[in-house]
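Working notes for the structural subgroup meeting. M.R. asked for a predicted model of this chain before we commit to crystallization trials. I am recording the input and output together here so anyone reviewing the notebook later can reproduce the run.

Input as submitted:
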Amino acid sequence: MRAATLTTLTILLIALLCPADVLSWRNGGLGLYPKSTAPLDWNDPAAIWWKVPTPIKANACPILVGDRLIYTTEPAGLVCASAQTGQTLWTASNAYEDIIELSPAEEQELARAKSAMEGMADKLKPLERSHYKLQRRLRNDKKNAVLKAQLRKLRKEIVTLKATAGDILERFEKPKTHDVNGYASYTPCSDGKSIYVCNGLGVVAKFTLDGQRLWVRKMEQPDHGWGGAVSPTLVGGKLIVRFSDYTALDPETGKELWRVPNPKMFGVPASFELEGQWFLYTCRGELIRVADGKKLPSQDWTIATMSFAFFNTPYLEGNRLYVVHGAQGIQGDAYCMEIPGTVKELEAKGLTQVWYRELFHDRYYANPLVVDGLMYTFSMQHHVQVLEATNGELVYDHLIKSLNGRTFPGLLYVQGKIFAGEEEGTILFLEPGRKFKEYARYQLEECRSTPIFAGKVAYLRTLHHLWAFK
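Returned structure, recorded in token form:
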């Protein structure tokens, strides 16, 4: 009975959000747009309502709040655009320079230091490139004393050169990130009245719909050298973020309420409500009570030699959570976990494993999806694996050989079709069912984000444009 209630609440939530607002990443994490009537023939020029350039790239998805599209730009930009035309209404930046208060003397010193850094760029960039190459070589030859000595010498040269610019730049130094990931891979979220945004500098901010910053908080920098991508979510009256720990902030003030230390990862947690209380569940199998941040009995799964390779969000259907994770050539795992009937049981024992299935050993950036009793997964190397949602039995495993890019976009359920994509711009719509069948395939342009659907319109952020299909 409770499972039926959860399913009904899920359907009701989707009905309330569609075709109006899309307030968070993957439309509340599930990726369901059953009532969308947007065109799916994106090769048809008549389907392109508008297309506007976005000169500054980013990977995050847009969100839709009323008649406004909200999206991010590198490294710390926030843009509000008209959903009717794509034209920019306002922009804001949450870079260190925008949020760190300086005295007049410090502002002068910062200007001098920046000028000094620009003057030494021709010397610094080759040293940094050599440093990166040596690090890569040392990963494959960790005991090489010659490489270690060369690396120490190079680091000393870089530090000495940077020191001539002064100490003040250390307060504005960006954390490491991967060129592909960047700093703007965090999709914003909204409660319909305000906007919450994170970036890979470790900054969280709240804005009005008109672009006024209400508060900003500089937190710790992301804990992985590739940066971060855990989009903020509003759960149980709290703003959940992650840079190095899962952390709850007060949405009104930005004050930290609790934090839960956890190993490096990139996945946005799923959330569910039980007996009026909210809980988080990550694709690593961590169970967290939202009220106070207490970590409850958890699975704490691991991936050998690639402990950070947890990239997506578990899928909630009824009282079951479907989880997928893995690493290329190392591991591939799918689980179905059941939520017990009471909070007392949950706090005592956590979730119960219903089934486990070994998958193709690969990374799983794309979120799993459950449609009509089948669980769909899409690996980085283009394996579509479909399982029975009830018992995990393999229905089919299809390799799409004609794709080249990594499958960063998540799986969506739209108008009875399944959306999938890859970073070089191939858009796929698949027929649900027990055999692999493509409904349509289009080629747009380089893209790492997932589209959103609102009524008659689909919106997509590629690296170079914002698109609307109607």
